[in-house]
Each structure stands twice: as structure tokens, then as C-alpha cells.
Hints:
Number of helices: 12
CATH class: Mainly Alpha
Order of helices and strands: HHHHHHHHHHHH
InterPro entries: HD_phosphohydro
Low-confidence stretches: 1-16, 19-47, 56-82
Helix content: 40-55%
Mean pLDDT: 79
Structural class: mainly alpha
Number of strands: 0
Keywords: Hydrolase
Region (Disordered): 1-79
Strand content: under 5%
GO molecular function, one term: hydrolase activity
Amino acid sequence: MSTTEPPPASGRPDDGTVRRPAHGTAREPADAARPDPRESRPAPDAARPDPGTAPPGTAPPAPDASHPGTARPDQETAPLAPDAADRELLDRWNALLISAREGTAGPDPAPYGEDLLGRWAEPHRRYHGTAHLRAVLDRIDELAAQLPPEEAAGPGTGTRADAGPDLTAVRLAAWFHDAVYRPDRSENEERSARLAERALPEAGVPAARTAEVARLVRLTVTHDPAGNDLDGELLCDADLAVLAGTPEQYAHYAAEIRQEYAFVPDAAFREGRSAVLRQLLGLPHLFRTGYARDRWEPAARRNLTTELGLLET
């Protein structure tokens, strides 16, 4: 959804700054590296719409009374601390960050993971929460296990010409790709990428890998990787794998998307969401990797067709 950015809300710094472990729990000032409030997200590639968005160009009005109980994103409070159920995710983060440093020393990875999990657990999120993060990480693992030997031999630079993906960068990008998420704002991917660009060097990740993570996060605006972009294909296919769930799983996903955009009136949401679904169904392929096309594409197209039919009745 492309909108002009409203004033920043109270609570979490709007620019997506990360806690600095070297200074306890203090955060950077809220206006540090803040994007120009006049900027809006570049228009997504028409051939690759984002299925997790509401109608493009819809300005956020007051909350829709027909969707009670959904928090307005501009009413969010301080980030929630991860609970015991997220300990496994935090363990995965700690191991990933240590691996990403390539043997160099760095600060304790846990505070960075705790900060990210707090973001993913913000109360205004319904679909874009920790369950989505875990699902994307799991789908990356599933896709990586199916790579042919010549591509699975990485780490490479993420292209087929290099004969291997940088799976560490892909997994880091999964952690950051929705780290900043406000459904009433249009620069979520850009802000998430900037968060990665600030946090990862501080956490000891080399510059080249940090740049690749930020590039991948920005790629989730369009989900349209180039033909030789193996890193991009893995992340985008994992992010879109929700489209291929069972009918019950897909219905739950669609309901959560509607809850996140409860401030959009029903008529506008139905019109915009229908346009997104038609564009997706018009693509030659929803997924880029051979495994995802074979295993996920048929179910995804059935689910999209079913939702479109319900929206148009």
C-alpha cells in the first residue's frame, strides 16, 4: 500500500533502530537515520504484486468498527519481550549470527535476537508475526535441502554462476524482511533493510554479507528476483509459501491479512485485494525454484482462485 507517511507513533522508534548491546538496553534516538517523511514505497513491479498487502493507494482512515479488537498500528506500545515459546527461535538466531561472522569476534548475539523477536511480536501484527518468521525459516531449510549438489555446495555469492547460494545471508534476510512492519505505512521493506544495515555490522557481520542481506530484504517489495539470483529465489519462494497451504491454512492466512488492514473499509479492501490476486494468477509462475513450482504452485493457484471467488461474490 503506497501512502504518504503519517507522523511517527509513540513507543518504538519509527526508524527501526536496534538496541546496542554495548550500551545496555538504550536505543538510538528516534530521529537517527529517519527516512524523509515525504517518501513512499516505489511502485511494485506490476508483474509481481505482494500478496500480503491491502489496496494500493488506500489512505488509512479510522479503525473499522466491523473489525473490533484489532489494534491500530499507530497505537502500538513498547516492544514485547520474547516468551519461552520463542526460545528455539532465539537459539537459531544465535547460531546463525555466530556463523555469519565467519570466525571473527563479536558482541553477544542474544540481545540482537531479542530485539528482533520483540519486533515480530508487536501487538498490531496478525499474520506478520513470529509464526510467519518461523515458517519462512523452515521453508528456506526445506528449499535448501532440495538444491542440486552443484548449487548446495556454497556459500557463494548467491548466483548460479557462482555455483552456490549464501544460505546464511538468506536466513538473515528472513529475520529482517518484516522486522519493521506497520500496515498503514509504505516503507516497511526499506526500513527493515536499513535496520539490517545498521545492526549487522555492529554485530560483527562482514560488509559484503550485510549488503546482500539488505538487498534481499528490499527484494521482498516485488518478489521478483533475476533469473540467476538464487539467494533471491530462495527467500521469495519461502516468503510466498503460505499461498500453498491447505485450504484451512490459507483461509487463516487471508483472515489475518484482513485483520492487519482492519482500518481499510471493506469495499476498498475487496477491490484492492482482488486486483492483487488477479495479477498473481496472471503470472506464468508464482515460484522460481523447481521444487516450489512442482510442490507448491498447484495448491497456491487453487487457493488464490478460491479467495478471489469469495471476494467477488
